[in-house]
């Protein structure tokens, strides 16, 4: 299989070339989010989302009425797509009921981008 051509580094104002999957040159590879590489290929059960998580997830869905909680806080009624950790496990969050919420895909994407930005700032 032919190799992909080098692409510009994703770090602002770098311009370096890279062939790495994460999109950063060697100088900026620390900016890549590590969860994708470390979790790749692992089953949900191995990642900590087995039977206990499924039961906890059902409880949270029932508690939140299957509605996206961030949308609800701003007056929108939207059905949920996932159960999310309010404080991510990577930042010290737990699986406790008060740290879980139902969330829709658009809210989840926005929240994940904010978390990734915080992680990049910590790593910089």
Summarize the structure in short:
By secondary structure, this protein is of the alpha+beta class. The protein is built from four helices and four strands; from the N terminus they run ββαααββα. It folds into two domains: 1-32, no CATH class; 49-124.
Can you tell me about this structure?
The chain is α+β, with helices and mostly antiparallel strands and 124 residues long. It has helices spanning 35-39, 51-64, 69-73, 105-123; strands at 7-8, 17-18, 82-85, 100-103. The two termini are 35 Å apart.
What secondary-structure arrangement, pairings included, does this model have?
Elements: E1 7-8, E2 17-18, H1 35-39, H2 51-64, H3 69-73, E3 82-85, E4 100-103, H4 105-123
Antiparallel strand pairs: 1-2, 3-4
Organism: Halomonas gemina
Domain HNH nuclease: 55-109
Keywords: Endonuclease, Hydrolase, Nuclease
């Amino acid at each position: 299989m032919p190799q992909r051509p080098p692409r510009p580094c994703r770090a602002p104002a770098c311009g370096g070339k890279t062939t790495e999957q994460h999109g950063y040159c060697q100088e900026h590879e620390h900016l890549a989010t590590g969860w994708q590489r470390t979790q790749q290929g692992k089953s949900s059960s191995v990642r900590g989302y087995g039977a206990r998580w499924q039961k906890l997830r059902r409880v949270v869905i029932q508690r939140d009425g299957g509605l996206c909680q961030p949308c609800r806080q701003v007056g929108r009624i939207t059905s949920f797509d996932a159960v999310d950790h309010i404080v991510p496990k990577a930042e010290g969050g737990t699986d406790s009921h008060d740290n879980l919420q139902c969330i829709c895909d658009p809210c989840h994407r926005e929240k994940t981008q904010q978390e990734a930005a915080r992680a990049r700032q910590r790593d910089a």
